[in-house]
Amino acid sequence: MVVGKMKFTFQKRVKLAQGLWLLSWLATLGGAVTFTLGCFLKTELRRRGEVMDNTDIHCVPNTLMIVGLASMGINYFASRICQDALDPGRFPRWKTFLKPYFGCSVFFTTLMLISVILSYAMKGSLETSLKIGLKNGIRFYKDTDTPGRCFQKQTIDHLQMEFQCCGNNDYKDWFEVQWISNRYLDFSSKEVKDCIKSNVDGRYLVDGVPFSCCNPSSPRPCIQYKITNNTAHYNYDHQTEELNIFIRGCREALVNYYMGLMNTIGAVVLSVFLLQSSVLASVRLLQTSMEAVAGQENVEIETEGYLLEKGVKETFMEYVDPVLKLLLLNQVTPPEAKPEAGATGTTTTTS
């Protein structure tokens, strides 16, 4: 069953080729935009790689960069094809090239759609990665003298100030870790001794947060120590009063930032995908309508164009079968070599 069958006069073929030329260059620009967005997202993810536990989310920008480059190449050849389509003498030279061209185009166009789906579906993986990464970042905040963790404090402080957040889930995460290094603690102080003895792990845990959690918009000077002690501050109740530190956790802030970024990129790439699909369909219609002109004296005859000569399933199998046969041939082990004549035989004994 022929899919997408249409009739084309000579004028329609000319208009199709001219429109396709413009469309292919727009799609080439779209491919460049896709590649640029992939590079930008990759850079943003690498900037905060220290607070991420894994790099699974990097599959999104990597895919975007690949399909962006592929799209530019595919649409460049599409513009060359539509130029030659206006000359029946030059178009036949593309005949052997078009089948692998359509195979590659369908593959990378599908990959572009997959990248759009991934940009919306990676929220769970991103959240898990940030949850573990931020937890470790807060735990190693005090290790400014430890090789490999020297800049962890600087990273967390910049992160909390830039995104106006505090802690992993919220500011109370800082109450559960010792974020002040021992080198800055006076162990002769009774307060320090009592604080260390008050927990079984021997850590200096306080109900306080780093300075980077302070909200500069608050009219009151920042209360970053003894946050839960109402008697330590004048006219203060931490349960009823709005605290002058950031309340939102950094995991929520980063997930919202990256998902907003990827959702926007996904919408742009989806538009490029639709444009790319239009180019692919137009090239196919132009090819099939021009095949009937080959060998004809009158090149202005009316011809028919179609998207698929057979059904979707039959066309898919037509492309897949050669690949499967090639794989099967590679898996077949060569037969064992037959022994040469005279190499084996019975031994006779002479008396």
From TrEMBL:
Keyword Membrane listed: yes
CDD domains per UniProt: peripherin_like_LEL
Keyword Transmembrane: yes
Topology relative to the membrane: Multi-pass membrane protein
GO cellular-component term (any): plasma membrane
Major site of localization recorded for this protein: membrane
GO BP term (any one): visual perception
Name of this protein: RDS/peripherin-like protein xRDS35
Annotated organism of origin: Cyprinus carpio (Common carp)
Source species taxonomy: Eukaryota, Metazoa, Chordata, Craniata, Vertebrata
